[in-house]
Amino acid sequence: MQLFIDTANIDQIRTAWSWGIIDGVTTNPTHIAATGRDFDEVLAEIFRIADGPISVESVSLDADGIVREGRRIAALHKNAVVKVPIIVEGLKAVKILSGEGIRTNVTLCFSPLQAFLAAKAGATYISPFIHRLDMVGHQGGELISEIRQIYDNYGYQTKILAASIRNCRQVLDAALAGADVATMPFDMLEALYQHPLTADGLRMFLNDWRKVPPSKLFS
Ligand code: G3P
Q1: Do residues 118 and 126 lie in contact, with contact meaning Cβ atoms separated by under 8 Å?
Q2: Which of 83, 92, 95, 211 is catalytic?
Q3: For residue 77, what pLDDT is reported?
Q4: Is 95 a catalytic residue?
Q5: 3-state class (DSSP) for residue 155
Q6: pLDDT tens-digit profile of 71-101?
Q7: Domain coordinates in residue numbering, the chain
C-alpha cells in the first residue's frame, strides 16, 4: 500500500519525504487555506519537494470549469493529479480529463456505488473518506472492502485511496481491505512508527549497552 501525506504544509511534506516511505501528496482547499500562503507558490514548492503523485483540487462545480481547471493543474507538473468532487458535473469532467490522459482523484466518496461510477468515468484514484464515515456511525473500513470487491469483480483499474484517516486502526483496516493508497496527516504518519514496547525495549538495550566495555566498532 502506498502512503501519501495529506497536507499543504511545506515543512511537514519536506520532513515526511525525508523518511523515504512517502509516495505522494494530497491537498485540498482547506489545507491550502491553512498555510495562509499564495496558492501558486505553495504548489510550486510541493512539486519541488515530492516526486510522486500530487493531488490538487478543482473548485468549479460545472464540468466545463472543472475541465478548464484540470488542464491548468495538469500543465503545472508531470506529477499533478486533478482532484474532482464526486458529483454529476465532476464525473463528466473526469471522463473528459481521463480521455486526455490527465490523472484524476475523485474525492468526497462515501458509498461503494459512488466509487463504481467514478471507475466507470475513468478516475485514476477514488478517495473514500474513512474517518468522516466512522464519525457518523458507519464503518469506513467496510466501504473500502466493498469498493475493492466491485473493482475486482469487473477489473476496474481505478486505485482506492483511503482518505480522511485519523487513527492507526483506520490505516490497518485500509491495508487489510486492500486499499492501494492511504493518505493521512503528518502526525498520523509519525504515529505509525510508534509502539510503547519499542520505546521500552530500546531504553532497556541502551541501558544494558552501558555495561559493555568500550568497543572500537562504535567509537
Ligand atoms: O484526502 C482527504 C482529506 O483531504 C480530507 O479529509 O476528514 O481529514 O479533513 P479530512
Answers
A1: yes
A2: 83
A3: 98
A4: no
A5: coil
A6: 999 999 999 999 999 999 999 999 999 999 9
A7: 2-194
